């Protein structure tokens, strides 16, 4: 599904877009601000990442920081990356959740 968003086959409002990454609002938000940042290159999950993916993973983190700033999350935010079924990953394309707009203490909720 995310690859179709990257290609434009599935329309989505892009909150961030560069040569390597894009971001859009999560359709099932878990916080007042819940944005997904994805690589445009298909990568199943962090479990599938290799050393050669290091620059791309760094770009995802940098893009997440830009998204957080653009969403006004100056008081802080949480970044979450779910990996595999047991890690709660529901879409087979690496993505970073940017969550904020409320206190994100532990435990969540």
Automatic annotation (TrEMBL):
Coiled coil: none annotated. It comes from the Bacteria. InterPro entries: Histidine_triad_CS (IPR019808), Histidine_triad_HIT (IPR001310), HIT-like (IPR011146), HIT-like_sf (IPR036265). It holds the Pfam family HIT. A motif (Histidine triad motif) lies at residues 93-97. Residues 1-109 form the HIT domain. One of its GO terms (molecular function) is catalytic activity. PANTHER family: HISTIDINE TRIAD HIT PROTEIN. This is Histidine triad (HIT) protein. It comes from Granulicella sibirica.
